[in-house]
Amino acid sequence: MRFDRDAYRELDLWIDNTELLYRRKMALGKNYAGRIEKGKYDRRKARKGIFNLVVVPAARQYDKEFGSGNKSIFDRSTREAVAKSHERQLFKGILNKEYDFATPKKYKGRRKTKVKGWNPLF
Fold first, then answer.
1. Directed axis angle between helix 43-50 and helix 76-95, to 10°?
2. Which residue of 18, 61, 69, 87 has the fewest C-beta atoms within 10 A of its own C-beta?
3. How far apart are CA 99 and CA 81, in angstroms?
4. Hey, what's the torsion of the CAs at 81, 85, 87, 92, to 10 degrees?
5. Beta bridge partners of 42
């Protein structure tokens, strides 16, 4: 998958530095933390959620503010790469217990080790 590295970096920074988008990403992280604890986490669905709820609105917002025409600055492969990166960040944060405050007490300590779609090298 080829993507524009400069556009990738720009969109990545835009998501992390825009309050609304960052809060959406953190809300998804809390949701995914609970799903991992229940053993119902699916990486493909998580990536799709981040793509649709965070990355696409971020690209539209960026285009609206800095775009110069009808064509989007970020092509699909760039947006998918950003979604993949953010999903990995959230997943690693969850495994490092950065989202333990978000997990309901009834699920704490019952973490399932098997996660659908998990590949440590991916």
1. 120
2. 69
3. 23
4. 160
5. 116
